[in-house]
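To assess whether ligand presence alters the predicted conformation, the chain was also submitted together with NAP. Input:
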Amino acid sequence: MDVGLQGRRALVCAASKGLGLACATALAREGVAVTITGRNVATLEAAARSIHERSGMAVTVAPGDIATPEGRSAALAACPEPDILVNNAGGPPPGDFRDWQREDWIKALDANMLTPIELIKAVVDGMIARRFGRIVNITSSAVKSPIPTLGLSNGARSGLTGFLGGLARQVAPHNVTINNLLPGPFLTDRLRDNSAAAARKKGRPVEEEMAERTRAVPAGRFGDPAEFGDACVFLCASSSGFIVGQNLLLDGGSFNASFG
Ligand code: NAP
């Protein structure tokens, strides 16, 4: 399938590791000039080298915290007119809602709801004027199936999803699409760290914890970030302009439902 993305420009946020990196790598492989962001400069530069080695494409880096105005300005200065925007940031910490103060909620809303909205606001009119835009938001399977300990994530990401459901229909006439990718368990550093923390709490080896989590997935394994990157490319394809406001769950069948 020719996805028709040669020569396009993409801003991929929080892309020095994990799912963001997988999206940037897959887009670069299709001839997209990518700009990637991340807070740790050394990790970000290593990611840029890895993408370049795999794709031959030039990669621009924009170091900074994407959840801050400064981080967003740096990202937009490095890639002012993206054809593709992939919104991503770290997820909020787990916990009990009784312990969360207003600042905890504001932090989660900033990172996982307001940052993507700010970035969309900055780039969407340019996309409309050029009559091409693909906006992909990395959210979570928790939007469909809330995870009790991740209330901050459930709340902030559901707010984003509700807002984007409306906006997606407003920009669709201009060949600008907004869709969301909902990861279930993908084998990234985040999943490894979460599993290690859970294993410590239960006093058992991390391998045991991960094996149990794997057994809970109908596919019998964790997702490979490269598969996630390919789904991102599909949503960004030139022929995907009729896919509007969708929430694509990639969870190996974990969400048990006859209809999505
Ligand atoms: P990961 O492996 O920990 O990678 C996170 C990436 O984002 C790193 O490159 C990190 O680099 C960057 N980052 C984090 N916060 C940032 C910020 N504020 N500004 C700029 N860059 C930032 O995580 P992942 O597994 O790919 O997860 C990506 C997103 O998907 C998260 O929101 C996560 O909650 C969600 N998710 C993941 C899974 C899963 O199974 N992996 C499942 C459901 C949802 P620096 O630390 O250097 O900034």
